Amino acid sequence: MAGSQDMMIIVVMMMMSSVFSVLSVGAFIFTRPKEGDKCKGTSVGGNYIIDKDGKCVLDYCDTEYTRSGDSCLAEGRFVDDN
C-alpha cells in the first residue's frame, strides 16, 4: 500500500509542475513589453518607446530639449571644459 501512495504523490507533483510551467509561460507572454509601450531610457528629457525589435528607443525629446542622435540635449546650456 505504501508504494501506491508514493506513486500518487509523484503523479500529483508532476501535474502541479506542469500547471505551474504553463502559468509562468502564459504570464511571461502576457506581461512582456509590446511595440509602442513606454519605457525608461537613458537621456533626461527624452520619451522612449519599445520598437518592433523589443528594444527601448528614443521617440521624441521634450520641448526644451534638442535631439542629438539617440539622446536629448538641453537647449541653451553649454558645458565649461575648464
Write up this protein.
- It is a single chain.
- This protein has 2 domains: 1-32; 34-76, no CATH class.
- A 3-stranded antiparallel sheet has the order 1-2-3, with no helix packed on it.
- The model has no long low-confidence stretch (mean pLDDT 86).
- Helix content is 37%, strand content 26%.
- It contains 1 helix and 5 strands.
- The chain has one helix at residues 2-31; strands at residues 38-39, 46-50, 56-61, 65-68, 71-74.
- The protein is rod-shaped, with a radius of gyration of 25 Å.
- Strand 1 (38-39) and strand 2 form a beta hairpin.
- It is α+β, with helices and mostly antiparallel strands.
Topology of this protein?
Blueprint: H1 2-31, E1 38-39, E2 46-50, E3 56-61, E4 65-68, E5 71-74
Antiparallel strand pairs: 1-2, 2-3, 4-5
Enumerate the spans where pLDDT stays under 50 for 5 or more consecutive residues: none
When the domains are counted, the total is 2
What portion of residues is helical?
25-40%
Number of separate strands: 5
Strand composition percent: 25-35%
How would you classify the helix and strand content by structural class? alpha+beta
Radius of gyration using CA atoms only = 25 Å
**Helix and strand element order:** HEEEEE
What can be said about the biggest beta sheet?
3 strands, antiparallel
Overall, the morphology is rod-shaped
Terminal CA distance reads 85 Å
Q: How do the strands line up in the largest sheet?
A: 1-2-3
Mean pLDDT value: 86
Q: Number of helical segments?
A: 1
